[in-house]
Design goal:
binds NADPH dihydro-nicotinamide-adenine-dinucleotide phosphate, alpha/beta, Rossmann fold, 10 helices, three-stranded parallel β-sheet, six-stranded parallel β-sheet
């Protein structure tokens, strides 16, 4: 079997076009959705991510503010900046690019962002809403992965979904979203014994471990839908996922490539959350 490739780039364009319609409708009512992205320090990868976010905003006609603060910014100054943006009616979404420098408590930062403007979906109030099954602003990466499954017409209800990884930003919210769509969900971690036993039973396999190419074709059920969230750079510079694409595509029914799978959807869902936050602001 050769898997159908889940083309995240094309699907992201389609989803962005849908959200642009909603952004345009807001504009017609005199409201331009606005996103503020704060970056503290000089981390090169973070700067690229922020640049991509600002570019995506321009594409959808979303107003964006890129706030670059020096690495030695005191925590109090960052919290004051967030408070200012919370009160700014032209800004509907606030995102602080993680990681922040070590002298800043990231939990304090995430809790300082107004839950109504928390477009990353990391504020405890939004995490609680996700657990309860009524998230208004779902975390972008798993939200994007769910959109990929939906756009590919992959059935979730009644299926066995296995999520490898339990981070707060990907694994846990992904498992909850699949559960809310009536999948039977298994979560695997670094402590799981006989990982392959679980992955081989997955109709939907989501992998978010940060361990390059750790899931190989022999660990996949024939015909399964494989969502590879991982982004890893090999020593030679090549980008690979947490799934060994070449062996996996011979077994799976559907598979996301890396790059070009989940990655483009993450930024797309950030745009979606910004538009959603702006829509809610006028309700
Ligand atoms: P974390 O490091 O926060 O979490 C990794 C998880 O994987 C942990 O729960 C860990 O288990 C589990 N794990 C690690 N090794 C194994 C193993 N051998 N077997 C089973 N489970 C294992 O990573 P993130 O969730 O933040 O990111 C995961 C990957 O996704 C990374 O490659 C990251 O770059 C990528 N990513 C991609 C995004 C995108 O837009 N496409 C966005 C965010 C992340 P334990 O809890 O027991 O330690």
């Amino acid at each position: 079997m050769t898997a159908k490739i889940i083309d995240g780039k094309t699907i992201a364009q389609e989803v962005r076009a849908e959200w642009k319609v909603r952004a345009d409708a807001l504009k017609a009512r005199g409201i331009t959705p606005g996103l503020a992205v704060i970056i503290v320090g000089e981390d090169a990868a973070s700067r690229i991510y922020v640049g991509n976010k600002v570019k995506a905003c321009a594409e959808l006609g979303i107003h964006s503010e890129h706030i670059a603060l020096p690495a030695d910014t005191p925590e109090t100054a960052l919290l004051a900046k967030i408070a200012e943006l919370n009160a700014n009616t032209a800004i509907h979404g606030i995102l602080v690019q993680l990681p922040v420098p070590k002298h800043i408590d990231s939990n304090k930062v995430l809790e300082a962002i107004s839950p109504r403007k928390d477009v990353d979906g990391f504020h405890p109030q939004n995490v609680g809403a996700l657990v309860a099954g009524n998230a208004a602003l779902p975390p972008c990466t798993p939200y994007g992965a769910m959109n990929l499954l939906e756009k590919m017409g992959i059935e979730i209800e009644g299926k066995h979904a296995v999520v490898v990884g339990r981070s707060n930003i990907v694994g846990k919210p992904m498992a909850l979203m699949l559960l809310h769509k009536n999948a039977t969900v298994t979560i695997c971690t670094s402590r799981t014994s006989d990982l392959a036993h679980h992955t081989r039973d997955a109709d939907i396999l989501v992998v978010a471990t940060g361990k390059p190419q750790m899931i190989t074709g022999d660990m996949i059920k024939p015909g399964a839908a494989v969502i590879d969230v991982g982004i890893n750079r090999l020593p030679g510079g090549k980008l690979v996922g947490d799934v060994d694409f070449d062996s996996a595509k011979e077994v799976a029914g559907y598979i996301t490539p890396v790059p070009g799978g989940v990655g483009p959807m993450t930024i797309t869902m950030l745009m979606a959350n910004t538009v959603q936050a702006a829509e809610r602001a006028i309700k």
